[in-house]
Amino acid sequence: MFNQKRLVSLAVLGLLVFSLVAASTVAAKTAPYEIKWYYPCNGPQRDLELIIDEANKYLVPKINATLKMFQMDFGTYAQKLPVLLASGEKFDIFFIASWTTPSYREAVAKGYLVDITTLWDKYAPKSKAQLPSGFIYGTQINGRNYAIPANKELAHQWGFVYRADIAKKYGFDMSKIKKFEDIESMLKVVKENAPDMIPLQNTVNETGYKMLDFDRIVSDTIPAVLYNDSKDMKVFNELETPEVKQYFRTVRKWYLAGYIPADAPTMTNFTEPRRAGKVFAYCGSLKPYVGEEVTASLGFPMEAVAVTPPVVQTRDACGSMMAISRTCKNVPTALKFLELLNTDPYLMNLILYGIEGKHYVKINARQIKMPPGVTRQNTGYRVGNNWVFGNQYITYVWDNENPNKWEAYKNWNLTATNAKSRGFNFDFEPVKNEIAACNAVWNEYMPGLTTGAVDPDTVLPQAIAKFKAAGLDKIIAEAQRQLDAWLKKTKKK
Asked: Would residue 356 be called left, alpha or beta, if left means φ above 0 and alpha means ψ between -120 and 50 degrees?
């Protein structure tokens, strides 16, 4: 009798345990993981929640996850990202690049990113398979991957993006622009004839300083550089070069003349003046059909003129990536989402363009246009900057863009030259304290110098002294040591 009761009790207990496990399993299946995703774009979009709803309908049955998307303009993102990462706030995915603050390399050095080297193959193998090897190996740090790069143009090229209608109105021959200084006479005409327009939006982080096109082998905020075609592979302080001093004097002259906005060093939302049609020209990164792409984004006829040739540096592979935060609580699901984003045309185009019929309509399998009555000014969803999000080659193009755009990207990459240091990735760890100190100096001095807001004859010597006091010479020496070791190793291969 006792054994019978004991058996019954055990059976009841077993059923209870089974029920609890089953209940928890059902609960797990009915409670999707919420992915918190931060990225920059044209700024917060009015219809974002509609796109989130549609995305969640698609994601829940596929990976049992939902999205919470945090959209910011680029200036706000630059301010928010370092605070977000340092705070330890729990979130999942974020945009990172060689040029963000913090930079990709710096973020890795600080432990902000999840190492996805082995996880990538397990949870997002197709997103890896669609990438050229240059992106996979070019974004590795000490042989490890910490983010998924966007499959897009690999080379970079700097120049001016400008309002084609304004150039035509005043008879500008933009083909005569071969260097940064060549646009000066045009800025003068715009200033005199269109006082409500910004002649050159030479704003912080979007300045013509990039047209000097140094090979920034440490980071974008450390003045330890090479020339792309370096003969001796010696790292140097760019601030002590004649071309930098000439650039600072030029933009100072333009700033005082009113060609550059007075708030250029502190401007965070540079997209809004462009969308309002208030900007004649700005300094930008070029690629095939960039004018058509920007026209589609801004709603004004835009064209571009190159100042530098196309070049591939190590940093170009790191120019646009999605990383997983160290505070993410479900890395496999975050990777599964990035897998879909980079390989599923429906999801990618939903995130980029919104809802078919409401935010766009199809012309054919490759091209789209605005629906009747909807314009780029009144639409509720126009994130722009498609290159931020991931694989460009599965996305639609607008009706005013060349349908062969993606083939042109691939061909353009083949025309570019490689910087001598391509493949070298600097390890921050030996000089991380000096890097942090020099970043602070950059943020103190370079916004004013690169936009023309301060007198370089007075401020540049101060900046150079501050960089040296912060340990720049030690960084340069360490960069040289690592580069020499890398060169020796690559020669043996």
From this structure: beta
* H-type alpha helices, 142-257: 164-169, 184-193, 242-257
Element (H, E) at 431: none
Helix and strand counts by DSSP (H, E) for the chain: 19, 16
Listed in sequence order, the residues at least 6 apart from 86 whose beta carbon sits closer than 8 Å to its beta carbon are none
In the block, which residue shows the tokens 């260097």? 179
Query: Is it the case that residue 281 has pLDDT exceeding 60?
Result: yes
Q: What is the pLDDT of residues 87-128, one digit of tens each?
A: 999 999 999 998 898 989 889 989 999 999 999 999 999 999
What is the rounded distance in angstroms from the CA atom of residue 125 to the CA atom of residue 336? Answer: 9
- Please give the single-letter amino acid code of residue 105: R
Handedness of CA 412, 416, 418, 424 (dihedral sign): negative
The conformational region for residue 176 under phi > 0 = left, psi -120 to 50 = alpha, else beta, is alpha
Distance CA 130, CA 151 (A): 8
Whole-number pLDDT of residue 34: 98
Q: Which residues have C-beta within 8 Å of that of residue 12, sequence separation ≥ 6? A: none
**pLDDT tens digits for range 202-239:** 998 889 999 999 999 999 999 999 999 999 999 999 99
Residue indicated by tokens 């974004």: 139
In this structure, the dihedral spanned by the alpha carbons of residues 72, 298, 357 and 396, taken in order and rounded to 10 degrees, is -90
C-alpha 134/C-alpha 333 separation (Å) is: 26
Sign of torsion over alpha carbons 464, 468, 470, 471:
positive
Q: Hey, is 306 helix, strand or coil?
A: strand
Nearest to 416 by CA among 309, 286, 267, 343: 309
- Nearest CA to 207 out of 273, 265, 156, 129 is that of 265
pLDDT reported for residue 269 = 81
Which 8-state DSSP code applies to residue 461? H
Going by C-beta distance under 8 Å and a sequence separation of 6 or more, which residues neighbour residue 192? none
- Distance in angstroms (rounded) separating the CA atoms of residues 465 and 64: 55
Burial class (CB in 10 A: 0-12, 13-18, 19+), 159: buried
DSSP β-bridge partners for residue 67? 35
Q: Quick one: CA dihedral 341, 345, 346, 351, positive or negative?
A: positive
Contact 229, 213 (CB under 8 A): no
Tokens 């959209």: give the residue.
Answer: 71
How far apart are alpha carbons 316 and 153 in whole angstroms?
9
- Give the percent of the chain with pLDDT over 90: 75
For residue 416, the 8-state DSSP code is: P
Q: For 12-62, how does the pLDDT look when each residue is reduced to its tens digit (9 = 90+)?
A: 445 444 444 444 444 446 799 999 999 999 889 999 999 999 999 999 999
